[in-house]
Specification:
Largest sheet: 5 strands, parallel
Distance between the termini: 59 Å
Number of helices: 22
Helix content: 55-70%
Number of strands: 9
Radius of gyration: 28 Å
Length: about 450
């Protein structure tokens, strides 16, 4: 077989410019299996280039020298390890590339199993509108918020929903860090053209954690042009980030301005009711009947994100199965004791008060005082809301910690902040930033 391929190479060397031949065709490895000739490209970028520019020439050469007895298959891999075929003996065009593209979407992340609550309802509603009007409204859609809040889940849900509507859509999902690595590899292998074409022909491009572009100028440059190309074609872009884009240092201003073309939506830490609903859903998937008192116990003591909740639940289930005992409140307290202690060490009302005071450049005495000056009263209300969200303390207990205030005062402050977060972008950003500081 190597002899046949060598004969084909001799013919192709005379037909293809030497630079293209040495860069793209010569690196291919040949393997014969059951009437098929597999030509193995070292990576997808080389394969895409071959498919678009030289497929017909290669196919003609193989047909000629095998008397039409061998089917040509192009794979990514090597002669020691062959990956799933990506293209067969079909015309080389972008439509075929899209149809044969294998999406890396996680099929388990859907809107159906995404638990909706006050913390994410606007983001979820917006995401569903993007599915219905991909590339037309909210393009790009940027979802931001702290770690473990469901940003990646929502991004995959968008991709899966669009794919369900159009099974031939080319939906590319990857982490920003992988985009950087792929670009570097393409540069090393002189395959930038194929790299650009691969991403710029996506119907939907989903990129996670764009904060990883910070400080990587060449990657930002390439993404900038990819972004513009997709927007011009009205192809949908969805991005996630751990903070509001304008807060990211090391990202070019022109790229930040592109992010603001569409819509940025915030996912906040889930409230108590949402945390409880998440626990019930995940327990149900594990075929576990989680008692209500245990559900609210975990939800109360794991306030930061879904990952903490999931980790606590998995530990509880594993211990119950290992000891072959039912899950009760006392058992949960025992099994999760160290996690709860750790949470309480990280966040206390006193820690919240000190952090808020430092953030707004006031002192603790002012924060706890009776003054109604907005420059003091608003941070005080924010601290009260954070204490309610991030600690297991009740309204009366929080009131005591704020110089003996009545529990109705704390309730009123929490409602005020909840209302302002919907209309005051600066306050909403400050609130999220404080949560990140307290949960770091």
């Amino acid at each position: 077989m190597n002899s046949l391929w060598n004969i084909c190479l001799s013919k192709l060397e005379n037909e293809v410019p030497s630079t293209d031949f040495n860069t793209w065709i010569r690196p291919l490895q040949a393997v014969e299996t059951e009437g098929q000739l597999h030509l193995l490209a070292p990576n997808r970028f080389v394969l895409d280039w071959i498919k678009k520019h030289h497929f017909t020439q290669i196919k003609n050469a193989v047909t000629e020298f095998s008397n039409g007895k061998l089917e040509l298959i192009l794979n990514v891999g090597s002669n020691r390890y062959m990956l799933t075929p990506v293209i067969s003996s079909e015309p080389a065009d972008i439509t075929i590339a899209a149809r044969n593209f294998k999406s890396t979407l996680n099929k388990n992340f859907t809107f159906e199993n995404f638990i909706e609550g006050k913390s994410n309802e606007f983001a979820r509603t917006t995401a569903l509108r993007v599915v219905e009007n991909a590339g037309i409204i909210h393009n790009p859609l940027l979802i931001y918020g702290g770690a473990g809040l469901g940003k990646t889940h929502m991004m995959h849900a968008i991709g899966n929903a669009i794919l369900a509507q159009n099974t031939e859509a080319k939906i590319v999902y990857l982490h920003a860090e992988r985009f950087v690595q792929a670009m570097v590899k393409a540069m090393q292998q002189n395959a930038l053209h194929a790299f650009k074409e691969f991403y710029r022909t996506a119907d939907v491009l989903l990129i996670d954690d764009i904060q990883f572009f910070a400080g990587k100028d060449k990657s930002q440059e390439e993404f900038f042009h990819t972004f513009n190309s997709l927007i011009d074609q009205k192809h949908q872009i969805v991005l996630t980030c751990d903070k509001y884009p304008k807060e990211i240092s090391g990202i070019e201003e022109r790229l930040k301005s592109r992010f603001s073309y569409g819509l940025s939506v915030l996912i906040e830490p889930p409230d108590m009711e949402t945390r409880a609903a998440i626990l019930v859903k995940k327990a149900s998937l594990a075929q576990i009947d989680l008692p209500p008192d245990v559900t609210f116990f975990i939800a109360k003591h794991m306030p930061f994100n879904v990952r903490d909740l999931t980790g606590a639940l998995r530990r509880l289930i594993a211990n119950a199965e290992y000891e072959n005992v039912p899950i009760t409140l006392d058992f949960a307290k025992d099994v999760l004791q160290d996690l709860i202690v750790l949470q309480e060490k990280i966040v206390s009302i006193e820690t919240i008060q000190k952090t808020v005071a430092k953030y707004f450049e006031i002192n603790i005495t002012e924060l706890l005082s009776e003054t109604k000056l907005q420059s003091i009263a608003r941070p005080r209300q924010i601290a009260m809301r954070l204490a309610r969200e991030l600690t297991p303390h009740s309204f009366p207990e929080i009131g005591i910690a704020f110089n003996g205030r009545n529990h109705t005062t704390i309730m009123s402050a929490c409602k005020k902040i909840d209302d302002l977060k919907k209309t005051d972008l600066k306050l909403s950003e400050d609130y999220v930033h404080l949560i990140r500081i307290l949960s770091a």
